[in-house]
Amino acid sequence: MNPEFSLENRIAYRFSMLSTANVRCVARLYTKKFGLSTAGWRILSIIGRYEPIFPSIAAQLSTMDADKVTRAADRLVELGYVIRNTDAADRRRVILCLTSRGRAVYEEVEEVSQQLDSEWRSVLTAEEARVFNTVMSKLDAQAKRLFTDEAMDARFAAASEAKRRPAAKKAAKKRAASAAAKKRAVNP
Q1: What is the pTM of this model?
Q2: DSSP-derived secondary structure for 117-171
Q3: Which letter does DSSP use for residue 10 in this model?
């Protein structure tokens, strides 16, 4: 195993730890003051940023399953933060929008989130911040290439094949040794 890629050095692990710390900090505001879960805040923030928005698009942007988005949206509607409108172009589709109350909640929590993000980045010089944004864009693009179902299926297939190769080589050597032994037995 390569220590460069041990758990505490993995990109996903480090991002997860940072994200969790950030979410827990901001959650103190949106949970206590506004009765929102983390999933609820995530969907509210996506609606606030992109409204009007279809639930399926909100699910993609949040990386949440559609059923979780539906439950979060249901709760947001109950709280009076979101309304569902019928899509004029396709009456079977729903569009999510913030209510004025939802907009006020969104703006308050968003302001705190932006202040926190600004303070978090304050340890970076202007050049480090520029490089950081460039690196994040590169990692985001690479993640979109690497983390598709097709790419992961190919990776697992290659790993399975790699595990089979040593066994296949060992079996081939054994067959060759057996054939050589038979040949020596026939032609001493």
Answers
A1: 0.71
A2: HHHHHTTS-HHHHHHHHHHHHHHHHHHHHHTSHHHHHHHHHHHHHHHHHHHHHHH
A3: -
CA distance 7 to 91: 48
Percent of the chain with pLDDT over 70: 89
Q: How far apart are CA 119 and CA 125, in angstroms?
A: 12
pLDDT band at 137 (very low <50, low <70, confident <90, very high): very high
Whether residue 96 contacts residue 52, with contact meaning beta carbons closer than 8 Å, is answered with yes
**Percent of the chain with pLDDT strictly greater than 90:** 61
Over residues 62-82, mean pLDDT: 95
Residue 112 DSSP SS3: helix
- Domain assignments of the chain as residue spans, ordered by start: 3-125
For 97, phi then psi, to 5°, come to: -140, 155
In the predicted model, what is the mean pLDDT of the chain?
Answer: 88
**CB-based contact 79:93 (threshold 8 Å):** no
CATH level 3 topology of 3-125: Arc Repressor Mutant, subunit A (1.10.10)
